[in-house]
Structures are given as structure tokens and as C-alpha cells.
Amino acid sequence: MIPLDEVESRLATLTAAAPAPDDAAEILALGEAVLEHWVRARGETPTTDRQEGFRLLALHRQGARGMPSFNACRESCRELIYHYNLLKSEPEHPDAGRRARMMALLANHLCLFVGGKLQTERLGEFCCASKPVRAQSG
Fold it and tell me: Are 113 and 53 a contacting pair, CB within 8 Å?
């Protein structure tokens, strides 16, 4: 499993360098790696199952089990997959670069959310910019 700080570093590099459409599979895998960390932190083995064709959604479902506040990142997971599907179906589209960047930003959002959730389990009950996490990092 890729350490969370390495995932975060790679996502920072991708977002700063304007990722290419060819980076879509890597970005999706980085999103999965983020959710794997959450599942492992809960003492579980990350699933290899797929939900609606994507492991990311199965990992989200596993991570949200018994933790309703984890659903705060469900739409980020779905949007990450939406942009992935757009890139795979239309790799030459004029917006492909923007779509790849959006994927990187969404995966980064997942990384920040999970990183914060690992620090403050209540994160997500209000929003991912929760004051307890901001107060601890300052």
C-alpha cells in the first residue's frame, strides 16, 4: 500500500503540472489508495470488489459502513469516476486536460478528507473544512 503522504505528494505534483488525459487511470488508482487507508485504519481489509464497475465505489461503501459521516465524500468519488469515464470515452476532447485536472483535484479532495478524518473522526458531520482540523494544524 502506498503511504498516504506519498499519495498526497503525487496528487500535488499532478495538479501543479496539469495532468494529461493519460494520467486518468493513475489518478483513479490514487483515489482508491486513499480509501484503502481509511478502511485499514478501521481495522478492515480493503475490498477488491467493484460497485457499479468501480472499486472506488466499493471501497467507499466499505468505509462508510457504520460511519454515516463518511458519506460526505461519496459525491467526490462519483464525480472522480464521472471525469474518468469522460476521459476514457473522449480522450481527444478539447476539455480533456481540464477533465484530467478535475480528477486530480477530486482525488486530492478525497486525500484531504481522509487525512482529516484520520485525525478527527467527526469530520464530515458538517463539512470537510471543519474547524477542529484547521485548529489543530495551525
Answer: no
- Our count of domains for the chain comes to 1
| Residue at grid coordinates 489518478 | 27
- Inter-residue contact 75 to 109 (CB < 8 Å): no
Report the predicted TM-score, pTM, of the whole model to 2 decimal places.
Answer: 0.85
Cell of 36: 484503502
Range of the domain at 64: 4-137
Buried b / exposed e across 60-70, counting CB within 10 Å, b at 16+? bbbbbeeeeeb
Query: pLDDT tens digit string along 52-72?
Result: 999 999 999 999 999 888 888
Which of 92-125 are b and which e, b meaning 16 or more Cβ less than 10 Å from the residue's Cβ?
Answer: eeeebeebbbbbbbbbbbbbbbbbbbeeeeebbe
